[in-house]
Amino acid sequence: MNKQIEFYENKLAYEMDPSDLFEALQNNEDVIVLDTRQTFGYEKEHIPGAINIPHKEMTTETTKHLDKGKTYVCYCDGIGCNGSTKGALKMTRLGFKVKELMGGIEWWKFDGYSTEGSRSTKGTGIQCAC
To answer: The whole model's pTM is what?
Structure first.
C-alpha cells in the first residue's frame, strides 16, 4: 500500500485540475499559467493571464526572463494533446518547478471558466463537482 500512496502523492505533486488552478489564481498563489501551444492557438484563446511559450521553443534563452521561484502550470489543448507534457518536461529540465494542468484548456472551459483571445469565451460559472 505504501507504493500506491507514494504514487498518488507524486501525481498530485505534479498535476492539478482546472478547479485547483482557478483556486490558486484566486488566492494569489505563486503560480504562472503557461500555454505551451503554438502562438496562433494562444492568440485565438487562452486561460486569462497565461503567458505563451510554445514547447518547441523552450530553451534557456526563451525562459531566462522567468522567475524560478514560481510554479509554472503548463497546459495545451486537452487530453488529445501532449504539448503540456512536453513543455512540463522541458521546463523541469531547465530548472523550473512545474505542474501540468489536467485536461488543458478544453477542461478549463468544461468547468465553466472564461478564456481570453480573439475567440474568447465567457465563463458559465459551472463548478467542479469533485
So the answer is: 0.92
